[in-house]
Amino acid sequence: MTEDLPYVPPPSSTPVNRRSALLGISAVGGIGALTIGGFGFARGVLTPEKLTPARFADRFEHVFGRHAGFRRNHAKGVSATGYFTSNGNGAEISRATVFKSGTYPVTGRFSLSGGLPCAPDKASVVRGLGLQFDLPQREQWRTAMVSIPVFLDSTPQNFVDRLVASKSDLKTGKPDQKLVKAYLDDHPETVAAMKIVHQHPPASGFENTTYRGLNAFGFTNEAGQTVPVRWMLVPQEPDDSKKPPGEQSSEDYLFENLIHAASTPLQWRLVLTLGRPEDPTDDATKPWPDDRRTIDAGTVTIKSIHTESPGNARDINFDPLILPDGIKPLDDPLLAARSSVYAQSFARRSSETHHPSKIDAEAVRRA
Q: What is the pTM of this model?
């Protein structure tokens, strides 16, 4: 997968399959909408169209509008720079260079789900953190993580169907409850996942949020042994999610607080969770049991936050299938889907005139 794909005008005739399809998990929070034009779910009442990366991107544009130069999902964000310090513990299960003891530069992007680059911050909106690890020999590891513990959908088609079902009515501003109920009646896995999500209230800010990769990957060590792994970044900042929310200073308060918090380095521990043969690797709606072995692989340190601009995270496609040797995708259909739709979004915004991000980090620091 490359970031330099040419722009492909919609609609595309390229079918989506297990190796090429949809959506940003990071998009999970763009749960609010999409048109019903074609992706039927209601017990076969509607005729489904072929699912393509272009059609996914089209739906986001239909719901949120087309904002030139911005991502179709997770449009509002800031860039970040820092480094990863590997303690060497991860080398037990993966030969990837990133797990050898050492320090590796990272470029990151904090974001909120949804396709509106100027949307006001809300605590309930899913937060994202994309990271690019720059490794020796020009290798890279890119990952896009989110702030919820499980994904709500087991397949790309289910993701789209749920978005269709939860589209807000223009008059009422609320989803059609009949469509939502019909979808949930047909998808008990989504109902179960939503219960798990609701058991994990959001932290007060980006800086003390746990970010999870959600999908399972195969980690292969020097001996050729492969184990399924999920990972997460656990913040060193205290979790104060149980405190009542205070008065917000502005509609960009989450980003402003992050910028101020990063006046001193922010750190997260990279925790690898090892699955067992009976644990699902093809369904991100299902958590693994809490007693699974974990490995603390090192620390991600974010040193500074930047306004999105040419050359920083604004121009990175956090494709989850850009992996170093020693990490490989398994059988989760969402992975290929995410990769494909990220590429579609990247190709479109790269061909457009870029507009300034709403979040000006320098201005926030001067205020």
A: 0.84
